Amino acid sequence: MSGFLQQRYWTNLGWAFLVAITIVPMMVLSFFNHPSAADDFCFAYMARDYGILWSTKFYYDQWTGRYFACLLFHSTPLFKGWFWYYQALPIVYMLATVGSVYLLLGELIHTSRAQKWLISTAFLVLYILQLDSIVESFFWVTGSYTYALPQILTLLFWVALIRSYKPENKRIKYGLIIWAAFLVFAMIGLCEMFLLLTTGLLLCFMGYRLLFQRKLDWLLLILFLEAVICCYLVLESPGSKIRQGSNPLGGNLSFSILTSFKTAVMVGIKWLPLTLVFLVFWINWLSNKISHSSLFSAYVRIPVWVGWLVWAVVVPVLYFPIFYGVGIESVSPRIHNSVYFFYLIGFFYNVLVTMLWIQEKWNLGFLSPGIVRVLTLLSILVLPLLIWKNTNVRMMASDLKNGTAAAYSRELYDRYEKIRQAPAHAMVTIQPLKHVPRSLFLEDIKDNPKHPWNDCETKFFQKKALVITP
C-alpha cells in the first residue's frame, strides 16, 4: 500500500508541475488578451452597422463558404464593446477541450473520474507544449472559431454518436441524434478541414459497419447525407469560388495531394519525440488496466490495421483543403495546431486498440513490466530536458515574468481611450506598441491608413482615420 501511495504521490506531483508550466500560464495570459487588428474589429463593426445576418451573407457571398463561421464571426460581443469576451473565451476553450476529451475517454474506458480528469488534462498539456502557434490556438478569436471550436465539437459529436446507440439512453436517443445532426451542420460550416474530416469519418464508420458487421447503419447514412448537403453549401458558395480563384494553384489535385502527404510526414516527425515520452506514461497507465477486459468498450475492439490506416490517411487529408482550396504552399500555424490535435487523438487511441488486441488475442502484455518501468524512468529523466528547451513554455514564462503581457494590455486600453476621446473628424495617430508578447500578439494596424486593418478599426471606433507612426 505504501508503494502505491508513493507512486500516486509522484504521479500527482508530476501532473501538477506540468499543469503549472502550461495550462496555468495560458489561463493567466488570457486575462491580458485583446481583439486582434486582424479581422476581429472588421466583423464587429459590420455586425453593429449592418446587422449580423446581412454581414454573414455578405462574407458568404464575397469571400468564404463557411456559413456557420461567418455567423459566429459577426455574433461577437465586441460590437457591443465587450472586450472582456476576449479574455474569457480562451479559458472556456481550454476547459472545453479537457471536458470533451474527458467525455470521449469515458465512452472508451470505464475508470474513475479522477483518472479521466488526469489523462484529459495531460492531453491538453501535451497539446500546448507542441502548438505551432500559441496565439493562433485559443487567443485569436476569429481563428479559434474555425479551428479550436470545431476540434471540441468533433469530440462531442463522437460522444453523442456513441451514446445514441446505448440501450440505457433509449429515452434520450432522439435528442442525442438531433444534437449530433446539429454538430455535423456546425462543424462543416466552420472550416473546410472539418468538412473533409466529418464526411470522411462518417463514410469510414458506415463502411466499417457494412464490411465487418454486415449492417447498413441508417443513422450514419442519414448523417452522411446531411453532411453532403452541408458540403454543397460550403463548396458551391459564391465566396468559395472567389477565394479558390485567387491563386493559380487552387484546385490543382495532384499538387494538393502530394503536398498534403509531404507536409504530414515532416510535421509528424517533428511532433514525435515528445509524443513518445507521453506515450510511455500512457502505456504505463494502461498496463495496469489492460487485463481487465470489462473496462473497455466495444469501440476500442476494432482490427488494429483499420485504426492505424484511417489515422495515417486522415492526418495528411486534413492538410488537403488549404492546398486545394487556396493553392498556397505554406501552411498557417493554426492549421498545424488543428492537425496536431487529431494526430494526438488518433495516435493514443490506436495504441490503446493495439494493446488491447495483443492482450485479448495472445494474452500477452504490450511490453513486459520490466521494460515499461525502464522506459518510464527514462521518460521521467528526459521530460525535464524537453520541457526546459520547449519554445512555448519559455515564451509564456517570458511574457508573464517580464511583465510584457500586462504592459501590452495596459497599452491597448490606453490606446482605446485615446481613440475614443479624439474628435470623429480627426485622423488619430497612434504610437507603435512598446510591449509585444509573442504568445498573445498577432497583428497590429499599419502606417497606411488605407490598410484593411486600419480601415476596420477606424470604422469600429467611428473615426475619420487611424494610422500608426512608422
Feature tags:
470 residues, mainly alpha, two-stranded parallel sheet, 22 helices, 71% helix, 2% strand, disordered N terminus
- Overall spatial form: globular
Mean pLDDT: 91
How many H/I helical runs? 22
Strand content: under 5%
Overall structural class, as computed from helix and strand content, comes to mainly alpha
Unreliable residue runs: 1-6
SS elements, strand count: 2
| Helix and strand run | HHHHHHHHHHHHHHHHHHHHHEHE
What would you note in describing this structure?
A two-stranded parallel sheet has the order 1-2. The chain is globular. With 470 residues, it is mainly alpha-helical. The termini are far apart. The protein has helices at residues 2-21, 23-30, 40-50, 52-62, 67-73, 85-108, 113-129, 135-139, 141-146, 148-164, 173-188, 192-213, 218-235, 238-244, 253-287, 304-317, 320-325, 333-362, 369-389, 391-401, 404-421, 452-461; strands spanning 427-430, 465-468. Among the domains are: 248-366, no CATH class; 400-468, no CATH class. It has 22 helices and two strands.
Summarize the structure.
This protein is mainly alpha-helical and 470 residues long. It has 22 helices and 2 strands.
